[in-house]
Write a structure and sequence with these properties.
alpha+beta; single chain; 18 strands; 19 helices; disordered C terminus
């Protein structure tokens, strides 16, 4: 006996006409919302058992994907009304409260064989019951990515007749996926995109276990963009079970199917886990818009080379005493004024490795604001002006350019020294943005904690005739970027 089936049977056993519909809908909606979690919106249409209007409309991806959900008393009612043929819009789901598949009276007969035949009349309609739904749901847990993914894709992408025996068979087919064999039943009972997601998750699991993803029956599905549900099922499993292979190609291929924005959305699922290999392999592919330099208040002592992890929803590089936070959001990280401005003399050397757009200097007697309009050598212009006027200058802000993945035009990054914050006007390369935070904002820490990471230029600066530093190893070195 399962919770949904038990709840519906109790409602039917104490049938009260005026309360029945509301109680049934409340029980079903509660179960659907628990099953889907935050990934879907379950809308009550305020109709019950209507011939054409669904009881619920379930929406995913902000409404881009939807299915109409109909509650019916029995499978016989669905077949007698020819609803599989008559109702096709909204990729309908028909849930029979009663699980019986045999029915006979004058002029009408139903059997398991005829029900299965009826379900095949539409390629995008699901016929199911509470027992089957609960069977799929109960098999899912956090340590089984495929079970979790099958649960999250069931209402979204299942089709045909899925009763309790079929649900049990699907769970068995899932285990065959883990062995690298694509189950025909999964292809039959799920839309193509849902089946592909499960096959891809199985391929990643197989690669993580075997250490090789270059051959095998599921290698061909290791491409495309992973959904948030896929990531939530597979990535914590890889990190938690310590199954991550040492092969950088694994992390690069995995990172190529996701974005940093998706990782931020699932930050709670991987909070505190060391994701250094993943970030390192994709630091030149992923992009962010803000970076912040602050203290590392973690009780754990970071290794000399540092490590990447999520903390309170933001990605960060943990160093000894310092933490560099980065975010895709333009609002997640904010400046915290209170830090003293830096002397121009202490910053100008490191800024020579960047193309500057503007510089704001404050002196004892005067202030200077210099912008690049016609000149391509703003560094020389600033030095010439600052050296020609006798004053002790402090730098307030500077705007510089760094690569923007997939874009010809570089991103413009504003550096707020007092607020320890860098802000890009468009998505900027994660590796380059991290370097700006460490190299420019953190210039005063250079001789103390960051000397091994910052004392040599890297390929993400505008120079390439140097050896990669320790930080390059943590970011993932790249040799193909040239001065724009």
């Amino acid at each position: 006996m399962n919770s949904l089936m038990q709840a519906l049977q109790e409602i039917r056993s104490i049938y009260v006409r005026d309360e029945y519909a509301n109680k049934v809908k409340a029980a079903v909606r509660e179960y659907l919302e628990e099953m889907e979690g935050k990934t879907a919106e379950v809308e009550d249409t305020l109709y019950f058992n209507h011939s054409a209007i669904p009881d619920f409309v379930i929406r995913w991806d902000g409404g881009q994907k939807r299915r109409d959900f109909y509650i019916r008393a029995s499978y016989a009612e669905i077949v007698a009304a020819d609803e599989v043929v008559q109702i096709r819009s909204g990729d309908p789901v028909f849930m029979s409260i009663d699980t019986k598949q045999s029915f006979q009276e004058a002029g009408f007969e139903l059997s398991p064989v005829s029900l299965a035949h009826e379900a095949r009349k539409s390629g995008h309609t699901l016929l199911t019951d509470p027992s089957a739904i609960s069977e799929i749901s109960s098999s899912a847990d956090k340590v089984d990515p495929l079970a979790t993914l099958m649960k999250s894709n069931f209402l979204r992408g299942a089709r045909g007749l899925v009763d309790e025996p079929v649900a049990e068979a699907l769970i068995g087919a899932r285990s065959r996926l883990e062995e690298g064999r694509v189950g025909d039943l999964i292809k039959e009972k799920f839309f193509e995109d849902a089946a592909f997601r499960m096959e891809r998750t199985a391929a990643i699991m197989q690669w993580a276990k075997s250490g090789s993803g270059q051959d095998g029956p599921l290698e061909s599905v290791l491409h495309g963009s992973m959904s948030l549900e896929e990531l939530q099922s597979i990535l914590p499993w890889i990190l938690r079970e310590s199954r991550a292979p040492h092969d950088p190609n694994f992390w690069s291929q995995l990172g190529g199917m996701m974005t940093l924005e998706q990782l931020e959305e699932m930050a709670a699922d991987i909070e505190g886990m060391n994701i250094t290999p993943l970030v390192q392999a994709n630091a030149h592919r992923w992009s962010a818009k803000r970076g912040y330099l602050g203290l590392n208040i973690s009780n754990e002592e970071a290794p000399r080379d540092g490590y990447w992890s999520f903390d309170h929803g933001t990605l960060g590089l943990n160093l000894q005493g310092l933490r560099i936070r980065l975010s895709v959001s333009g609002h997640k990280l904010r400046s915290r004024p209170g830090r003293s401005s830096l002397r121009w003399e202490s910053v100008k050397q490191v800024l020579r490795d960047y193309r500057l757009q503007s510089v704001s200097l404050s002196g004892i007697e005067r202030s200077l604001a210099i912008e690049a309009k016609a000149s391509n050598d703003l560094n020389a212009d600033v030095s010439k002006i600052a050296d020609s006027v006798e004053d002790d200058y402090f730098i307030d802000r500077v705007a510089l350019q760094i690569p923007s993945p997939g874009q010809e035009e570089p991103a413009s990054v504003d550096v707020d020294f007092a607020g320890s914050l860098v802000t890009a006007d468009r998505p900027a390369e994660l590796a380059s943005l991290t370097r700006v935070v460490l190299d420019v904002v953190g210039v005063e820490y250079k001789e103390e904690r960051l000397s091994a990471m910052l004392d040599r230029a890297t390929s993400i600066r505008y120079t390439s005739e140097v050896e990669p530093s320790v930080l390059d190893f943590r970011l993932g070195a790249r040799d193909d970027y040239e001065h724009p």
